[in-house]
Amino acid sequence: MFRGATSLSLDAKGRLAVPTKHRETLQLQCAGDLVLTAHPHRCLLLYPQPAWEPIQAKLMTLSSFDKQSSALQRLLVGYAEDVAMDSAGRMLVSPSLRDFAGLDKEVMLVGQGSHFELWNMEAWRAQLARVMQDDNFTMPSELEGFSL
Fold first, then answer.
1. Hey, what domains does the chain have and what are their CATH numbers?
2. Whether this model's pTM surpasses 0.85
């Protein structure tokens, strides 16, 4: 289970160090074999490879003749890259994915349970501010009656 938000730095080669608290879990789950891909919100998604495979399989069952389905396939599967943690717990973010998400030196890694989101720091702060300022925030119908 991946949770928590961590500020990280990309080095000059586009590598980032996976936080120590997640490295062991990733080694156990997938031997450090990960999939990094684009998300429509202009962030990146980072999955352990075994968790990504059923998602990709489901996406590929969608009709390529449907504009929305094919757009999602192009984005999520088209940008998907296999990445591996090195012995120092670092992973390389390719130039095309860094460009897509606008990643520069300072990034935010956000746990989402089964995977992570990787955000440009300014984009992370902006989307967080939008959520916090939304006076008309409503819970999704799936969470009706949910309480914290």
1. 5-134 (3.40.1550.20)
2. yes
